[in-house]
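We were asked to recover a plausible sequence for a given structure. The inputs and outputs are reproduced exactly as logged, with field labels preserved.

PROBLEM: sequence recovery
POSITIONS: 161
GIVEN STRUCTURE:
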């Protein structure tokens, strides 16, 4: 058994300190050590996007990042999007447009969409489709997801994205 490493990071706006093994992925740390189970394990090799998180403003697959690599970083997971009183506009539009089925891929799609809207608040349909090409859904077509993202882009921003 390897020696655990102490890591400090800012996760969903809160300073967090935890111990993890050097071989543990960020996804394993989020789910197993910190109880943040919103990020899902899909392929565990960076091909499906179910485990997407935002690290210092960059969209990453948390299954490909080691937990020790987030020392001093800022991480946003699906749990960090909604406010205390209402859903994030992306979450609300995913519900309104029925852009989900089994839910395994949904957190990754929403986090990836947030990263897109942070960089490009008014994307075209083609830009949304291109950006989300790294996310896979086995249940439904992608059209409802793209419509939900485009609708969320029209919501009054008020600093929510």
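RECOVERED SEQUENCE:
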């Amino acid at each position: 058994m390897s020696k655990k490493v102490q890591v400090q990071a800012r996760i969903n706006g809160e300073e967090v300190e935890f111990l993890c093994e050097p071989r543990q992925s960020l996804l394993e740390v989020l789910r197993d050590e910190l109880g943040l189970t919103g990020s899902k394990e899909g392929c565990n090799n960076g091909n499906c996007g179910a485990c997407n998180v935002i690290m210092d403003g960059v969209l990453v697959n948390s299954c490909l990042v080691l937990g020790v690599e987030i020392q001093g970083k800022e991480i946003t997971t699906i749990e960090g999007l909604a406010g205390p009183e209402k859903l994030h506009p992306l979450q609300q539009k995913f519900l309104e447009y029925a852009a989900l089925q089994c839910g395994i891929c949904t957190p990754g799609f929403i986090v990836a969409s947030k990263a897109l809207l942070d960089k490009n608040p008014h994307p075209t349909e083609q830009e949304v489709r291109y950006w989300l090409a790294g996310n896979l859904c086995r249940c439904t077509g992608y059209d409802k997801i793209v419509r939900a993202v485009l609708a969320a882009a029209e919501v009054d921003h008020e600093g929510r994205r």
